[in-house]
Amino acid sequence: MAGSKQLITIKGTRDGLTLYVDDSCSFNEMLTELEATLSTNHVTEDEPMITVTIQLGNRYLHEKQEEQLRELIRSKNKLVVQAIESNVIPKKQALDWLEDSEVKVINKVVRSGQVVEVQGDMLLIGDVNPGGKIMASGNIFVMGNLRGIAHAGVPNNREAVIAAAYMKPSQLRIADYISRSPDYETEGVYMECGIIDHEKEKIIIDRLQILARKRPDINGFERRMIHG
């Protein structure tokens, strides 16, 4: 039993109520305490609906438990659940996040007609020949010649970048943005990157050094590309 320890803490915010739940108690203890706590904090009929956010801490609720929790709060006058938040995520979601955040290293030449696609960031040690295509849900780094098509940020990550030791692509794509031929020099450029300029609403080509300022979270890759 929880004894006299307080399991539910209620704080009022500008957006409604936030309930902080002790994550060391059992689910049934939590429901019992929540029922008692909400019953002693009546809302009068003339007050508007109050949104409730529940902070579970390091506790994960199964779908059936979450529905029980929502039903309990809905049964109280004028309360509606806005969000149930937890520090714990399901295993599948964690594995998906890990895959998205991993760097896939590929050592090959992507030839005409070939398509190489990865989940997460791509580090290609090799060339992309004309007619070849590389795609990644994250960033793309080419330690070689990029002469084909590169599509980063698939499908909608507009913060993704494309960097190459030598850049003369037939097309660059980042999320739903597509570069046009005037966006990069005819002769190609060395040690450059393509990013979305949100003010100009287009893909621009610039020096790799701008990544330290524009995308500081990938600064390590910038150093690897520059210093080899």
Task: Describe this entry's structure for a reader.
Strands 5-7-9-11-14-15 form a six-stranded mixed beta sheet. It has a five-stranded mixed beta sheet with strand order 6-8-10-12-13, with no helix packed on it. Strands 1-2-3-4 form a four-stranded mixed beta sheet. α1 runs parallel beside α2 (63-74). The model has no long low-confidence stretch (mean pLDDT 82). The protein contains five helices and 15 strands. Helices cover 21% and strands 36% of the residues. The protein is elongated and about 75 Å long. The chain is of the alpha/beta class. It has helices at residues 27-39, 63-74, 91-101, 211-214, 219-227, and strands at 8-13, 16-21, 50-55, 79-85, 103-107, 115-118, 121-125, 133-136, 140-146, 149-152, 162-167, 171-174, 177-178, 189-197, 202-207. The longest helix has 13 residues, at 27-39.
Number of strands: 15
Backbone structural class: alpha/beta
Strand content: 35-45%
Span from first to last CA? 61 Å
Low-confidence stretches: none
> What strand line-up does the widest sheet have?
5-7-9-11-14-15
Mean pLDDT figure = 82
Largest sheet: 6 strands, mixed
Oligomer: single chain
How many alpha or pi helices? 5
* Radius of gyration based on Cα positions: 26 Å
Q: Considering DSSP H and I runs of 4 or more, what fraction of the residues is helical? A: 10-25%
Order of helices and strands: EEHEHEHEEEEEEEEEEEHH
How would the global form be characterised? elongated
Keywords:
single chain, 228 residues, alpha/beta, six-stranded mixed sheet, five-stranded mixed sheet, 5 helices, 15 strands, 21% helix
